[in-house]
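Let's practice the habit of predicting before peeking. Look at the sequence and jot down your guess about where helices and strands might fall. Then scroll down.
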Amino acid sequence: MATATSYVVQPELTRIAADLGASLESTSTAAGLPILGYMFGLALLVPLVDRLPARQLVPIQLAVLSLSLALAAIATNVYAFGAALLVSGICASTGAQMSTLAGKHSPTETRGRALGSVTAGISAGVLFGRAVGGGLADGIGWRAMLVIVAGACLVCAAGSRAILPGAAQRRDQPYLATLAAMPRLLRTYPELSVAAVSGALWFFAFSLIWMGLSLALALPPLNLSPTVIGLYSLAGVSGIFATRVAGQLADRFGSRPVVFAGLALALACTFAMAPALSSAPLMLLALALFDTGLFAAQVANQRRVLSIEPLQPARFNSVYMVVYFIGGSLGTALAGTIVSLFGWPAAAVTAAFALTAAGALYMRQEPRGAD
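Done guessing? Here is the structure:
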């Protein structure tokens, strides 16, 4: 639910711009602020899971998320709208906190399965956030839609208050000192740096493929409508179902085999997608398997990260997710340039190079206990 809030307004940008009396460009920028806020949340809020009782931290964060969405719903100008969405994005990092808690409180032998379940929820939020937000906004308006989503976040806050553990956490050093020390973790723990950089490479490939495909489908000679292009995202449903299975396989065989298998599958799909732009059945099949491979790799890789220091995994997960997210942002940013200058096949080949580099980097790392 928290993850979905970063995407619910995106289908309604033209109506929102008209209601706020703003340009489409400024409204689009405001709608992108939750993603920027999410990066701040990864760096600043995820480490708090190791310091504060989850029963207090998560409900408060979800309540602030709800309040920020309600403020966005009553905004009268694009600046207030954007500021509220920025705060909502920061609080939407609850998903990454849930991953940390799943890894922290699950037995070692079922850690991957637990992470798979949480990752499935996060993936569903990414996939269905736009669809649900657009559908509600079409029926009742975007302001009422945001109020309903805000209410759903309050329900989640109440549920987390009742269910999550409330034990006090160990605090080895002040919060600011913890934040300052986090970049050094990449140098101190080679397994973290390998996992983070390789994950960033395949998230770069993932973002490049999906953003590049959206652009390529809209350009001549296909000139598909936004509605038809949006239907392609349904191919990602298979990745949601793959996450739990991938977690179970990682628990049984270790993280490395699952990561390598996922990357190999995704790599094969990038080569299949390069000449398949005009063949919808082949493209949809390749997209489904591509997502399956990378979702599986993500679950196994995150299991590896959370196993580095199981009693205090939040700072490791925070560093990992920030680096991972930077890779995805670069893929999104470069997609337009690559597709417009060199065409869709060049985007697929670039993604293939990134996946190959991720696999090569991962292979160089010596396997350890949870690998």
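How did you do? The mean pLDDT is 86.
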